[in-house]
Design goal:
single chain, alpha+beta, Structural Genomics Hypothetical 15.5 Kd Protein In mrcA-pckA Intergenic Region, Chain A, six-stranded mixed sheet, 22% strand
């Protein structure tokens, strides 16, 4: 088959029972595997590939569907019918013949069911990078929000300040005002498709660790980590920890050897300018876009109130959800943002290209050192990785 003969399939992916409908229209080459389709759905919808998933394809003359999924050593496939390996199964073997749609389920706990509707077959354009998202409407629900009904309940509570769970839901969304989360938001330009080969390698390493040597980062925990966990409760997620398994940040062995776990700035009296001078002398690699965020520690906030609560500081790699540094600071401590960033740079032996924050105070602090270390600071309306990590912290602490 020549390139001119190749086709792309157009699908409409709709989140079942969502009102108004949450949907995306995507293009993907006909020779793509079901794993490629899975990744295209994840990235176009806005999911984080945090949970298991599965495709169900209906068969004629039987109620038992064909199941297409990744192999998992914990699954027992006896007696459940035809089970196909989504790494090997091509979408062209099923769609555009007798089958026009299938079901895609993500997160078997919350049960996010999607209808994947085959709409059209089009000529492949050699000037276009696939997969491609053509259109869509409405925001993807946050992970672990309790399925479509749990998500809708949370949205109703956000619109009712008198509801007894109003403050709790605001905290769960990691927002101060309901207007900060727009369920109708959808920006086509924000969609980025990940490398499916890299994502598949990471899955295989997690599922079959004895058969795969991994260079994914795993750092030993220090006594300082344990003290922070015990005393402050907020540092449940240490640096060197990947919050989203499929998005493991891969770093060099040099960087791994410099990562030592959480450093407590409470005992670090070195001057920031001296640390910056030392870092400027090193030829450190760049590591993309980082986010810096703060929030009140939920444990001390409940005990002492928001004004006296300890502050959780988080530095995270935006795309991989790799936690670069965490730090618990007193509420009135000055310079904590600069400290936590400098420690993230030192611990990971890498510099950011861009640092994102939505806090004007953090922005001003970082602007004071950005020129010296040659990175940009951007003030944005919305962060990508930090809110999800804070939500999971809150849920585990709750």
């Amino acid at each position: 088959m020549t390139i001119k003969d190749k086709k792309v399939f157009q699908f409409k992916v709709s989140l079942e029972c969502s009102k108004p409908l949450i949907w995306r229209r995507i293009l993907i080459p006909e020779d793509a595997s079901f794993f490629d389709l899975h990744m295209a759905i994840q990235d176009s919808m806005g999911w984080l590939d945090y949970h298991l998933h599965c495709f169900y394809i209906s068969q004629k003359r039987t109620t038992m569907p064909i199941i297409v999924r990744l192999p998992n050593p914990e699954f027992d496939d006896d007696g459940i019918g035809i089970v196909l390996d989504e790494r090997l199964e091509k979408i062209a073997s099923h769609f555009n013949r007798s089958i026009k749609q299938c079901k895609y389920e993500y997160d078997f706990g919350d049960g996010w069911s999607h209808t994947v509707l085959f709409e059209n077959e089009l000529p492949l354009d050699i000037n276009v990078k696939y997969p491609q998202c053509l259109a869509g409407k409405n925001a993807c629900p946050p992970e672990d929000s309790g399925g479509i009904w749990g998500y809708e309940d949370k949205l109703k509570i956000l619109n009712n300040p008198k509801h007894p769970e109003y403050k709790e839901v605001l905290e769960w969304f990691c927002i101060d005002e309901p207007s900060e989360f727009d369920p109708a938001e959808f920006d086509l330009n924000e969609i980025e498709f990940r490398d499916t080969d890299e994502s598949l390698k990471e899955y295989m390493k997690r599922s079959y660790p004895s058969e795969n040597k991994t260079d994914c980062v795993s750092y030993p925990r220090s006594k300082t980590d344990e003290v922070l966990d015990t005393q402050h409760h907020g540092c449940l997620f240490g640096i060197g920890m990947v919050h989203r398994p499929i998005r493991t940040q891969r770093v060099s062995s040099t960087s791994q050897s410099n990562c030592r776990g959480i450093r407590t700035s409470l005992s670090n009296k070195s001057d920031s300018s001296e640390r910056i001078a030392l870092l400027m002398q090193k030829n450190l690699p760049r590591m993309g876009r980082w986010e810096i965020a703060q929030r009140a520690d939920p444990i001390t906030e409940k005990t002492f109130g928001k004004d006296l609560a300890l502050i959780l500081n988080l530095v995270v790699h935006e795309e991989s959800y790799f936690i670069l540094n965490t730090y618990v600071s007193p509420p009135a401590e000055e310079g904590s943002v600069v400290k936590v960033l400098l420690e993230a740079i030192s611990n990971n032996s890498a510099l950011p290209n861009i640092v994102l924050t939505k806090d004007k105070k953090i922005f001003a602090e970082l602007e004071s050192i950005a020129g010296s270390l040659d990175f940009k600071v951007l003030l944005v309306n919305k962060l990508k990785a930090s809110p999800q990590i804070f939500r999971d912290m809150t849920r585990l602490l709750g």
